[in-house]
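Researcher: Can you fold this with adenosine-5'-diphosphate in place?
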Amino acid sequence: MVDPAECTIKVMCRFRPLNKSEVERGDKYIPKFTGEDQVSISGKPFMFDRVFGSNTTQEQMYKASAQKIVKDVLDGYNGTIFAFGQTSSGKTHTMEGSLHDPDGMGIIPRIVQDIFNYIYSMDENLEFHIKVSYFEIYLDRIKDLLDVTKNNLSVHEDKNRVPYVKGCTERFVCSPDEVMDTIDEGKSNRHVAVTNMNEHSSRSHSIFQINVKQENTATEQKLSGKLYLVDLAGSEKVGKTGAEGAVLEEAKNINKSLSALGNVISALAEGSTYVPYRDSKMTRILQDSLGGNCRTTMVICASPSAYNEAETKSTLMFGQRAKTIKNTVSLNVELTAEQWKKKYEREKAKNTTLRSTVTWLENELNRWRNGESVPVEEQFDKEKANAEVQALDNVVNNEKMTPSPSIPGVKLTDAEKEKCEAELSKLYKQLDDKDDEINQQSQLAEKLKQQMLDQEELLASSRRDHDNLQVELNRLQSENEASKEEVKEVLQALEELAVNYDQKSQEVENKTKEFEALSEELNQKSSILVSIDSELQKLKEMTNHQKKRVTEMMSSLLKDLVEIGIAVGSNDIKQHEGSGLIDEEFTVARLYISKMKSEVKTMVKRSKQLESTQAESNQKMDENEKELAACQLRISQHEAKIKSLTEYLQNVEQKKRQLEENVDSLNEELVKISTQEKVQAMEKENEVQTATEVKEAVEHQIQSHREAHQKQISSLRDELDSKEKLITELQDLNQEIVLEQKRLRVEHEKLKSTDQEKSRKLHELTVMQDRREQARQDLKGLEETVAKELQTLHNLRKLFVQDLATRVKKSAEMDSDDTGGSAAQKQKISFLENNLEQLTKVHKQLVRDNADLRCELPKLEKRLRATAERVKALESALKEAKENAARDRKRYQLEVDRIKEAVRAKNMARRGHSAQIAKPIRPGQPPVASPTHPNVNRSGLFNNQPTAIRGGGATQ
Ligand code: ADP
Ligand code: MG
């Protein structure tokens, strides 16, 4: 043993440089370094074992604070290096740095390297076993970073009452590379598990542990050293990180382990008898490092920015407190057989001296008790005996493995002490067991909670199902009720219908009778109409005939007149007596003629009127027929509707029937169940034999009862069916009859109206007939008068001719004569004739023109229509053309776009060819060797080659 057993914790303080954002913000650089071991923050000095400024290199840091520990560990001591400080104060930078950069690497990689270097330089008789573990503590849960499945490890104590993490992966390593690989693996596991690494690392503690065991193969001396390298969580206050809610809870938990660390350090600094190691898992693991058998170095990391002043100060205060802690270190030696033997001998010698002391003392005591006074030189020499024992003790103590814990302040005898220790260890054991149990129980509780949630979900879903089913059932029941109601209503309605039907059939009979009478009447009327029609036809013919005759007569009369006129005009014969007579006769004749003309006109008019009325009546008849057809169509539609309704009714009936059957079956089941229950009850009460008998009897009874019931029901149902069928038939019949009746009524109405129309027409016709009769008579009279006139005219002509002849004779005889009045007459007649001729010409011309125009009209109309159609067609064609044009334009646009796109893509591709630097490589795609950069692929391949050789890295 070289070092003194007692040593304080070494505290180093390191300030990082101002970072980029602090510089940008213009933060002040506050620490003032006043010597190697002192720094002052705004006037307040802080003393440490060493203080490092911002420009300290990683190597300097390592050499000053950690290098010595490597030797200690390999000499069989325990060691710990902490990094403490607020987030981003440089803890990770100090502990790890950039792991694979020779200049930037922090304490851990340098220690690893050094351990192996040291080993290589040592005695070849020494054999080393090195194993490493890596875990983190987050929310007071220990997670193994080398095996992610172990996420809640517990802390136990070994037989020497040194705490360790139970079940944590320990990896044997034989080279620095293997250690670094292990660290890399742990770090990558940590990264995989969390989303925000910065946040996570600021809230969790990471602990890297190296165990070194050595055995001297020559002396069989065994030594062991344990090294903890701890990167603590950020020490900042909760307020500053702005944590809220769940995060706040988490921060409190983190602070729990950090505050436990603070409490432990405070208790140790104050020399308190009770140190609360057990308050957190971290303090338990580091129990030996704090006030125990360990050389501990704490690196206090701090920010130099004025912005973090308060935090920096509290960090430095913490470090100062830790500086006062004293650890008691001892070698971790396993004794060889030889050493054990020596120790045994020594203990034996000690025992004999103690025993002789005891006998000495007993003797002395007896002498005192017996009233003797023992002289001073014969009394027990305490000093001498103590010195003797001390001499022996020193030898033993130097080889003691662990210092025995003592409870200060209380004096105990050895036996009590032993008992107490045994008790204490038992209690601690129990405590560990309880810890384990708690762990298990909490896991179980979580599992059960999950199960409970599942069950609750299941329950909720089944409850929902149940509710749904209940709703469905209710709906079905209500439907059943409704259908029952409906059936009742239908039956009632049917009864009413039957009664109605009787009434209606009676009515129908009456109506048919009426109808027959009416049709007979109609027949009569129509026959009358036919006869009247034929009469009318005859009359028309007659009128036409008469018209013709009259016109003929008129034309012959006019011809005669013309002849007479010519005769009168051509002859220059004068006749005084005759001329006055003829004049008179002429005027009379003209009067007659005009009269006749007017009468003829009225006749023509009347006949026209008659024709138009006939056309009207024909039109009306057509309209009536059309109406009749429409009515028939409607009737047929109604019939179809009735049919569909009856079908629907039948469907409803069937449904009802099914539902009734269902109800029956349910009832039956109910009865069955109740009887079963009864039987069961009976079975319970009575003997089984009688119960079965009773059951059989009851079942038999039920069977027979059921059969009878069913039969009855089926017969009733059949009856009901037949009745319903009858009712529906009757209903149909009734419907038909009602319809028929309606139709008949309508027809009757129509016939009546036609009858009225016909009678009206008849009346008109009779009136017309009367008039015609009148006209005929008038005509007859006229004819007679005309005949008479003609006769007289004839006579007159004869007379005139005779007169003329005599006059001609006379004139021939006398030769000298006068012409006087006849010339004026002639002139008048010719003038009239001319006029007449002109008028007739004009009239004819007009009539012709009119006819032409009428002919032209439909043609023009047709042309107009054609033009309109043409215009329409042209319009539609124009529209189509427009649409087509729009579509073409769109297509054209699309095509242009596409071409543009293609051209652009081509351009891009061409540009890409010339300026391409890196080809994007997607996951799952092997990088393709490009002709310009063939190295890309090859270097990629090389990277896949394993660079480190994993030796006997067997895991435990
Ligand atoms: P912590 O682990 O305490 O949260 P980090 O070690 O991650 O903080 O440090 C935060 C940042 O500051 C990192 O980018 C780190 O590189 C830088 N840094 C810390 N200490 C130093 C230093 N001494 N020199 C240079 N940069 C440092
Ligand atoms: Mg960190």
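Model: Folded with adenosine-5'-diphosphate in place. Confidence is low (pLDDT under 50) at residues 238-243, 399-410, 911-956.
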